[in-house]
Amino acid sequence: MTVSCRFIGGGIVGAFLAGRFSDPFGRLKVIGAGVVIFTVGATVMVAAINIPMLYVGRLISGIGCGAVANNTPLYLSEISPANKRGRYTSLSNVMEDLGFALIAWISFAFSYVNTQASWRLIFACQYVGSIILIIGVNILPSSPRWLALKGRDRDCSKVLAKLHANRDEGDPLVKAQLRQILTAVKDEKDAERRNGWLELIRPGPN
After folding, report:
1. What pTM, to 2 d.p., does this model score?
2. Are 42 and 123 in contact, with CB atoms under 8 Å apart?
3. For the chain, how are helix, strand and coil distributed in percent, rounded to 5?
């Protein structure tokens, strides 16, 4: 199994775990945890003295990236206005692809460095993303839908007002969005009580 395959395998694990922990702990906390995990992985790779260390570091980085990639579109969709939700969510995928392209060009540039520093500096580039994301998760508001899921209706209203109405909780749009979110959360909780994972494979009506 190559170094790249371990990253992909870790990403699958990270995405699955992020999906399980997103509701209990919140979108931003899971994203933040993912950032910490892939920063640890990057550090292991930068400090690697043999191939097994690269394997381990790449696996850890994959887990962290999988967690971030799973929760970022979800978070964006829950804080975005309805008329721009698709645009912002799609932008996440576009930026991810641009990041892959950028690191490919950076790798090409470092291929002309004829020392071990070449590949170590490539892995160290992950620290730039880590810093940006850590700042982001500490200044961005929690997901309104997650707050409603936790019964924090007042906090949900405050975040909606901050995002869409210049902090005016009396704005009709904020009130309408709050009602919509609370209704959707209630309906989903009722559906979860009635149905389980077997619903995914149970035959539907003809």
Report:
1. 0.85
2. yes
3. 80, 0, 20
CA 118, 123, 125, 128: dihedral to nearest 10 degrees? -160
Q: Look at residues 7, 71, 68 and name the one whose alpha carbon lies nearest to residue 36.
A: 68
For the chain, helix (H) and strand (E) counts, in that order, are: 9, 0
Q: Which residues contact 119 (CB under 8 A, 6 or more apart)?
A: 110
Output the six-digit token pair for 121.
């500096």
H, E, C per residue of 159-197: HHHHHHCCCCCCCHHHHHHHHHHHHHHHHHHHHHHHCCH
Give CA torsion, residues 161, 136, 18, 99, to 10 deg.
120
Measured distance CA(48)–CA(59) in Å, rounded? 13
Residues 122-168 have pLDDT tens digits of 889 889 989 999 999 999 999 999 999 999 999 999 999 998 888 88
Going by the DSSP 8-state scheme, the letter that residue 47 receives in this structure is T
